[in-house]
Every structure is written in structure tokens, then in C-alpha cells.
Amino acid sequence: MNDRAELDAFKRDIDLRQFVASLGYQMDKRESSRGSTVLRRCGDKIVVKRNHNGHYVFFSVRDDRDNGTIIDFVQRRENLSLGEVRKILRPWIGRTALPAFSRLEPTSKDRMRVEREYRRMAEAPRHPYLEYRRCIPAAVLSSPRFADRIRIDRRGNAVFPHLDSEGLCGYELKNEGFTSFAAGGEKGLWSSHTRPQDRRLVLAESAIDALSYAALFPDVEDRTRYASLAGKPNSKQPALVEATIAKLPEESEIVAAFDADPAGRSLAEMAHKAAAGAVTRGRTDLVFRAHLPTQGGKDWNEVLQSATRSGPATTL
Q1: CA neighbours within 13 Å on the CB side: how many for 274?
Q2: Which one of 34, 102, 163, 209 counts the least CB within 10 Å of its CB?
Q3: Are strands 158-164 and 151-152 parallel, antiparallel or unpaired?
Q4: How many CB atoms neighbour CB 35 within 10 A?
Q5: pLDDT tens by residue, 161-195
């Protein structure tokens, strides 16, 4: 094997996750997905992915300069020459008795950049714009249901992560007079945490509307999960909604809580079709209903703001 082929083998054939696990790094299952694995050790937090060439690559959440392949990982932490790194990595080629990790799906350059930017944003259990401009109660934002489903970037924007079947695919940005989406990202679904005892899924147009619905109609039994699309759906989102519905526990209800306008009614129809698609998979136990605002505003955040000014919200 020539020098170039050997370096390529190190990057492609050695699972970087297994290598760092041998150094004491532990996988964070909550933050990991099909497209990325998060590992921690003694204050160090890295994300491991596979690029479009099939190479295992990493980046540090806490240091912009700390990124690259397994060769960069070893050189940066051990301060070794390339020749010394080769000696360390050669025994790893073809090694089999290793900690088991599921297959890591290759990721495009755009998704790599999106995830690198997102992972460096701070969690936001409290957010001034959402609380004081959008009237979303702090108790909702900081609830376990929405833990780490809202972040804040260096400009103070509220950031809502979108996921698809492979993991993080983009994020929505919101602030006063400002709405955007991650450059190079793609819309999937923003969602709350899910629990086995859940019996309701609320689908909303935006994450802010979903949070507003949770504030307006508090679920005292905590059996409701939430998801949103960030506006007009792309070609992949209806299938994601259908897959989300198909995974609901038995005898669950789907609530289409979209805007009271033509676009919202179109989204409600899309959600109804997705629920019908789940029925074709054998889910005859599901109940679907549309719940669009009838007063106080055309979307649920406008209703929440109106209710906040006039008094307590109505509950389910």
C-alpha cells in the first residue's frame, strides 16, 4: 500500500467513533442520529460524521479550529508527526473486536456546515424575543418537552432545528421582523420530545405556533407531542409527516393546528392525507381533526398574544 492509499484507508476504513471510544469518549445517544454521532470526554465534545467521500470526519463543538479526519484528531491531541500517527493507526486497519456503532450515513458538505454551525449555538430554555414579543411563557420554553428544541445564535435569533430521517438537516431562524432558514439547509420537521405515553400529535405551521398552542391549551397529563413544518412544505415533508404519524402510540389523535387562511387550510389537507397514508399502513386506531383559530388572530401565536392581553387562555 502506497503512502496516499494508506492515508485514505485510515480516513475511510477506521471508524473514528470506535477509535475515540477506545480513548474513553462516551456516545451521547440523545444528541446522536443516523447522520452524526456526538461523543464526550472530560469537557471535550465532538461530532463525528461521514463526508461525501466516505471519510470519517469530526468537528469540536467548542473549538472552531479543531476539525478534520482521524489523522487531524490524533495530531491535534498528541502533537505527533505524520509518521508517528501512521504507527498508531496501522493496527486499527481491519480491527474487528470493537465497540458496536450503527452505520453512519454519508453527509453532504452543506449538511456538514449546517450541523457545525448549529452545534455551536447555545441552548435557550429562556429567550427574550419569544417571551416578551411573542408572549410564550417561560414555563413552556423551559419545560422538558421542549428541552434543547430552541437555541439562540450570536445575533440573538431564536433557532429551531429541523430533522429528517438522517438527522439534523437545517434550522429556522426567527426574530423581530426577521425569518430565515439555514444557508444550505433543507426543511424537515421541527419537533418536541416524544414519550411512550403520548396520545396526541399537534402539527403547526411554525415552531412558534406549536409553542403557542402548547401555552393556550396546556396538557396537564403531558401526553402531547408537537411538530411544525416552517411554512409551505417542500417535496419531502409530507412523507416525513406521514412517517411521524405512523409512529404514534395506539389510539392517538392528530391535531392539524394550522393558520386560519388558505395556506393553513392547504396544510391541514396535507396533514389529513398523511394521516390517511398512515391508515393504509394499518393504523386504523388514529383520530384526525383540524383545529384552526376562529377568533383572536389567524394563527395561534396571534391568538396567544390576544389572550395574554385580555386574560387567561382557554384550555382543552
Answers
A1: 26
A2: 102
A3: antiparallel
A4: 23
A5: 999 988 999 999 999 999 999 999 999 999 999 99
